[in-house]
Write a structure and sequence with these properties.
By secondary structure, this protein is of the alpha+beta class. It has one domain: Peptide Deformylase, CATH 3.90.45.10. The chain has 3 helices and 10 strands. The strands form 3 sheets. Strands 1, 2, 3, 4, 9 and 10 form a 6-stranded mixed beta sheet that branches. The protein binds zinc ion. Zinc ion binds next to helix 2.
Length: 203
């Protein structure tokens, strides 16, 4: 997911989660709208090995190179269910981590469903933003790179990120959730803009 246009950076944010080793991994070009790998459900991860670990290193590098706050594996052309994130919530807490085989939990029945209508953007729809209402709370279950079960929950902008990244792995971009008119407008913004990071050509 792309950073908010007018994101306010906290001077000393609290960080929750893992600390990626940025001495490892290589940034790869980002796939964009129209690339088939973004428009279908990708495969479950079944091998929790060094290759998966190296993929996650590359995903962190790619996300930071593109200045994103979240990245799904198919955004670097890999057909596997993994995403990484380094994303603030609305309380200024920075959440950093990865989730393998994520599944979005149903919204809890005992929680008041509040829709947050913030702006959303995506590294795979470069330079476009659109307002998209989403629940202000989300939780995903999945596994870590060693296959241990994990659960990640978040509020505000981070809840948006968890939903956005899980959607990617099932073949959906945020623009697929917009009205026809807003979707068209987002694609027009993308056509008129130029990404500030390396993208993979659609051929
Ligand atoms: Zn995205």
């Amino acid at each position: 997911m792309a950073e908010q246009e007018q994101h306010e950076h906290d001077e000393t944010p609290k960080v929750v989660g893992e600390q990626p080793d940025l001495s490892r991994g290589t940034a790869r070009p980002i796939t964009v709208y129209g690339n088939p790998v973004l428009h279908r459900e990708v495969k479950d991860v079944t091998a929790f090995d060094g290759e998966l670990s190296a993929l996650i290193d590359d995903m962190f590098q790619s996300m930071y190179a593109a200045e994103g706050v979240g990245l799904a594996a198919n955004q670097i052309g890999v057909d596997l269910k993994v995403f990484v994130y380094d994303c603030p919530d609305d309380d200024g807490v920075r959440h950093v981590g990865h989730v393998v085989n994520p599944v979005l939990e149903e919204f809890p029945k005992d929680r008041r469903r509040v829709l947050d209508d913030g702006n959303e953007g995506c590294l795979s729809v470069p330079t476009a933003y659109a307002e998209l209402p989403r629940p202000d709370y989300a939780a995903v279950t999945g596994q870590d790179k060693d296959g241990n079960p994990i659960r990640v929950e978040g509020t505000g902008f981070f809840a948006r990120c968890l939903q956005h990244e899980t959607d990617h792995l099932f073949g959906f971009l945020y623009i697929d959730k917009l009205s026809k008119r807003d979707r068209k407008d987002a694609l027009r913004q993308m056509a008129e803009g130029t990404a500030r990071y390396a993208t993979a050509p659609n051929d």
